[in-house]
Structure formats: structure tokens, C-alpha cells
Amino acid sequence: MTSVTEKKERTGKAQTTLLLKLANPFAAFGRGVINIINDLGAAAVFLLLAFIKIFHPKQLPKIIQQVYFIGARSVTIVILVGLFTGMVLGLQSYYALVKFGAEGALGTLVALSLIRELGPVLTALMITARAGSAITAEIGILRISEQIDALYTMQIDPVRFLVSPRIMASLISFPLLTAIFDLIGILGGYLSGVVLLGVNAGTYYYRVQSSVEMKDITDGFIKAIVFAVIVSMISCFQGYFAHMRKESHGAKAVGYATTSAVVLSSVLVLVSDYIVTSLLL
Amino acid sequence: MTAPLIEFRNVSKRFGSLTVLDRITLQIYEAEATTIIGLSGSGKSVLLKHIIGLLKPDEGEILYKGKALSELDKSEMSNYYAQISYMFQGNALFDSMTVYDNIALPLVEKTRLKKKEINRRVMARIEQSELIDAAEKYPSELSGGMQKRVALARALVTDPKIVLFDEPTTGQDPVRKNIILSMIAEYQRKFGFTAIMVSHAIPDVYFISNRILALYDHKIVFQGTPEELEDFEHPFKEEVIHSLEGLKEELTGLYSRRQFKIRYYNELKRKPFQEPYVIAVFSILDLELLSEHFGHETVQVMIRCMGRYIDDHFGSAGGFSNRYGTNEFVTMLPYSDLAEAEEILNNFVEDIQNRGVRDICEMTQEQPSFEDGFTLIVMAGLEQGQQDTTIDAVVNSARNNIREIARLRFGKSEAGNEKISS
Asked: For B25-45, what is each residue's pLDDT tens digit?
């Protein structure tokens, strides 16, 4: 009698274990989803707080300092990338258009591609690589070396002191750098199309002028602002919470946070580019 | 009994399954220097972080002037935190800012003071901390000791009412360690703030603390004065105090107080009944003035030299010594009577007159300029003891007999040293 009961109990236990094993992937998926929702919620609150604190009286010098770091110091790389992007665009488009005898439309193609799409996206990716990674690393180091705790003990709000100026500076710098990128890119297209391949200069400029509308420029700037929010928020968020990473601690956590910030910002720039484009069209 | 400024009532803190603070109850009193001692990882820093609000207790209450922090409204809470400064174990200086900017930061960000006033206050702290040459340097360009001084200056620049020091002397050599402690003591006396310190620097920290809190096995096992800690019987003392204290004090190389007492009672046991022995008490006056003139380092070197001279002279006569207070030394001469002790004392006075100032100058890294001249007074008192008297009673009698024995002249004419003999 006892052995039958024991057998039943054993079978019951084995069934429960099997069920638990089967449920494991679902549980892991559920945990993952909950973590993502938690992080999104935290990031939203973080962003909101940082936005509110932009308008504190003592922020201006810090914002100017960050505009210099994020904006002014990125000008060289943006010019370089803009120039070669425009040149390669001019080159490729010329050989495609010449097949249809439509090389005169080169200016239209280069200008619209740059202003509506390539300018904001590539500028955002460049700033992510140059300034976004540096922001995450800097804030992450401040966190692990207790400097953020020190700010807290001095009654200085770390979000106001560190995050808000960077977000505001990004909002200022991204559209300006995008404009520089667009302009230099159009000149790059001129160099390869007009100077090297012999397209008529007047036609090139006429096409640029006649085909670009104000809406194209506005849409490009809207994208730049969306990317500014995404890149600055992700970079600051990853650095600020570097100490809470589960996979590592200390300097290694800062390294992971920096990688995450760059990867996540780049992916989200491209995803949001599609979403914003479909909304604006 | 005065009401405590800060009080912990049954405070517990856990990190996951690890209990760091287990129903801690303690009191901290206003304008006192309180030191929390305990082994590494016993939760001392966690305790400090509860006071500043970096951590919140899982259970229990923290009271400020009798009112629970959890019951304070937003403005009261803000006022409470505004009174506190925290000096981090790793200094937590902003490495992208200069020393000046680091010290000015709390004033620039949290006050509406004019630039001129901020500059005045920051420069005053920089001067007090002997950091004039380092004002425009970055923290990474400074030595560990200088970084500590910058952190101390930043903690004090807002004139806080409560200052928390998390292991302020970690990684410092004995002289630097005592320089930092004496700076804390000096500032605490001068500005009257409540100092709460976590430290391993035993026994050095006893000289500047009014109260000691002992954290052991996640609980507070002792609260009282350093003198009361002498008589405290608990496994904490064996495991913590004795392991941290060492046999000799690092700065002077003299016996620790505990070792001194052990040897004192052993000598008494060994001696035939009624055979006398002598206790000598030495004291150096005006150390604070010396510090003001020539800096903390000179004071610490002075104390170290004095400890060595005493040990050299009285040790050869079978004596042994201990630093009894910040500026006080006690020596036992177990085989000497009063007359012999006087003779040794006279030789001692001769020697410090000849070597004293010169040795101190040689040992001080930054050569002090003696343009103004300064006189340091050395006092001594002798008392013959008997076997049935306690050490404290004999020391007190020796203190009553204290008299000036020498004047050490720091200044243009070292020849001006005067010997004052009995």
C-alpha cells in the first residue's frame, strides 16, 4: 500500500519537474519582457526628469560646455563623412542616371537623399560613435567612483548636473550638425558629379534649388531632434545606471554600458528613422 | 543627559540574504567627535550612508533631534541634508575639475553667493589645508595625502553642522595619518561641528574622539569614551581592537596603551614589595600654535621625535613609555627611585636642547621658515609609586608635579634654547 502511494508521489513529482522544465523558456521570456518594460519605464521617467531640470537657472554654462563637446568637436568628423557621402552618392547616382539620360537630375537626387534621409541618420550615427560613447563612459566612471554619490551628498541633483545639459546640448547640436552634413554632402555631390564627371554646374544647382522644399528640410530637422533625444537619453541612462548591470561590476560594467549605449542608439536611430519617415510622409 | 543629535533605533539593513546591520541602536551627540570602529566589511560605511540618506533602513528608525527622518517633511529633510557633509573613503573628487573647482563646487551649485565671496571662502579653505600650490592642479596630479586634504576642504567649505568621515586615513603613512586626524580634530574644535568618523586607525583615533562606537557581528556592542573602552570586556576587543592596535603605536614607536598597562602590571608583580618605582609624565604645550605657524606635519614630526627621545633616554634605564594623550607621554621607570629619575630627566633635557629642533627640521619635508620665531614649552612631572596604587592615580600625581623643563626655540637663533632645570 505504502509503495503504491510512494510511486504515485514520485510520478507526481516527476510530472511537476517536467512541467517546470517545459515552462522555463516561457518564464525566461516573461522575465525578459518584464525587464524591458521596467527599463522603458525607468528611461521614460529619467528622460522626463532630465527635461524638466533643463530649465534650472544655473544650467547655461554647462549646456554651452556640452554644446562645445557634443557639437563643435564633432564638426570635423561630420564634415569628413558628409563630404565623402555626398561624393559617393554623386558618383553612384551619376552612373545610374546616365543610363536613362537623366544625369541632369543628379542635384535633385543628391540633395533630397541627404536632406531627408542620409543627413540626419549618418550625423546621428557619427555623434553616437564620437560623443555618445564618451558620455556613457564619463557618467559611468563618475558612478563607479562614487562621484555621483558625492553630488547627492552635496545636495546637487546628479540628473540636473550631469544629464540635463547633455540632453539640451544634443537637441541644439544634432540639427546644426545635420545642416552642416547636408550642405557639405551637396558640395561633395557637386565635386564628383560636376567637377569630376562633367555634369553642368548650373543644372546641378538649379535642380537642388528647385526640388528641395521647406518640408524636406523641416522633416530632416524633426528626425535630427528625435535622434538627439534617443542618443543622448540612451547614452546618459546607460552610464548613470552602469553600477546596476547584472553581468559585471566596476570598470567592466562601464565598458559594457558604453557598448550597449552605442549599439542600442544605432539600432534605435535606424528603427525610429523608419517610423518617423512613415509618419511624416 | 543631553538629548542625542542623531539616534538609530533598531535599524536593520539587508542586501539580498546578507544582513549588514542587525537591529542597531546608537546615539550620536552634538559637537562631539564620534568614531565607529569595527573590522572591514562589518557595515561601518553602510551605517554612515544611512545618516546621509544614500541608503534607507529596511527596519527601524533614524531620528534627528528626536524626530524620525521618515516623518520629516520635504523642507525639513532638505534642511537636515544641507547640514551634512560627507568625506568619501576614496575621496570622490571630480577628476576633470581642478582642486579649486572641486572645493568651490558645493558653493557654486547650491548657494547664491557672489563669485568674489565664493573665491574668498574657497581660498580660505585652500590656505588652511596647505594646498595653495595645488589649487590649479587636477586630483590625479596630487599625492594620496593631498587628495585627502582636498576632500576634507570640500567637505568643510559649506560650514556643515555634521561631517561624516569614511576612513579618512586609509592608505596613509603614520605621519600623514596623524596629520589628517589632527586636522579633523583642529577643525572640529574650531568650527564646532559634529564629527562622525569610520576609522581603523587605532589607537591614534582615540586621541581625537569623544566617543567610540564598536560595530561587531552586525550590532553595536559598545558606546562610550575611549577610556571606558579600556575596561570593556567582550570578544570584540580581542578580535578587533587587539588585531588593529598592534603592539606599538605607529607614529612614535612606543607601546600601545594596552601593552603599556600589561607591562606595567607585570613589572609590579615582579618587584619586591615596597620597592619604589617612578612614573614620569611629559607634555608639550602650544602644539596648536606650532601647527598654525608651521603646519600639521611639523607637529606630527615633533610628537614622533619626542616619543623617540623619551624612549632612547628612559629605555636605557629599563623604562618603557606610552603616548597617553595627543600631547602627553607617560614613562614608567621600574628600577629607579626619584633621585635617579631626576638625573635621567636632566640628561634628557640636555639632549632635546641640542638635537630637538634640528632633528625635527630635518624630518620635516617642507622646511618651515622660522623668520618669526616660535617657542615650544616642554613640561615634565615625576612621581614615585607604590605597588598598591593604581596606574591612573600615580599618573595623576605626576601630573600634579608637572613643571617646565625646556623651551625649544624655533626661529632665527636656535641658540636661544633655554634649559630650565630643577
From this structure: 999 999 899 999 888 778 888
